[in-house]
Design goal:
With 170 residues, this protein is mainly alpha-helical. The protein is built from seven helices and two strands; from the N terminus they run αββαααααα. The chain has helices at 7-25, 40-48, 53-70, 77-98, 103-126, 129-134, 136-169, and strands spanning 28-30, 36-38. Strands 1-2 form a two-stranded antiparallel sheet. Strand 1 (28-30) and strand 2 (36-38) form a beta hairpin. Helix 1 (7-25) packs parallel to helix 3 and helix 4 (77-98) runs antiparallel to helix 5 (103-126). It starts with 6 loop residues before the first helix and ends with a helix.
Length: 170
Amino acid sequence: MKKTITIQDMVLTALGMALVFVATMYIKVPNALDGYFNLGDGFILLFASFLSPGLSFLAGGLGSALADVAGGYAYYFLPTLLIKGLESVAVSWLIEKYGSRVRIPAYLLGSVIMVTGYFFAKWYLKGSAVVAAAGIPENLLQTGVGVVIAVVAYPLIQRGFAKSRARKTV
């Protein structure tokens, strides 16, 4: 079944990509292990709650990967694109298939994908499982904060969508 992408879908995807980029690029705390803590995951999870899996991949994966390039971590572009993209797709697909009642479990699965993905990416890039494991606590904190952001912001955005739809029908 082919789904038509609406102007609203395109605008929401672009907005998601931009907010993920800004939250990743400008709201970050560098660490000693050649990485940084950021708030981008909150927006990845939030926009995955409303976008289709393919559009979620663009908002989450590309928004984060472009922030890596702009921030001087270009060698993380491909791992970030794949990890954050897969995180977005998994969350979006679960919510699309089972409804918003699975939001929090979907967010937690997305978090596991992110933490696991960066463990293996860092292991490959740094050549050490010990160095990669040292990044796990920070990634857990980052994704935990991201889940809180998405859980708190979701009802506000949902209410905004409901008001927007109500104005269209009047």
